[in-house]
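User: Fold this; tokens only.

Assistant: Input:
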Amino acid sequence: MSLDISITLTDSDLKLFAENMQGARKTADKLDAVSIVAAARRLLEDTRDKELPDFVASRLKHLSTMIAMIEDAGFGLPETDRGNVLAALAYFSRPDDMVPDSVPVLGLLDDAIMIELCARELQHEIEAYNDFRKWRDDEATRRGENAADLMLNRVAWAEVRRSESIERMHHKREESYVSGDWAPVLFKIS
């Protein structure tokens, strides 16, 4: 039997999380990226073999993606975006989070909520990274190589995306011309 419980965060609740994130940003300014990532990774390792509520477990996957984004040299996250992701991860390097992780059942609830809020804030970065990883994995498969060994970077990814967009544009133009929906008026299309 499952039970559906809905939690509504009010403005004051969100303010509390925002204040905690500001504290994490200050922590991030004092720590190097390696320490921040190590602390976030420790949370993942500490929870790996534990029975977790699905709400928490599903959010930890976002945390894993954020760590990968920082460590993936091929993706080459720009500095400003990297700083935002590191600030999100810095929350997990603080020993004084809102509910101590050692509290049974509820200890990771604040972490899961913070991960959810960060994932929403970083939605576009996460989507771009997942798209990049999928492309890299597909490209590795196409080449018969291991994705981890394949040195493909964001520049190559962007070039492939640009080429695909131009090819799609040409295809749509040709379809429109052949179907009679459109014909060039101002200049000749080759």
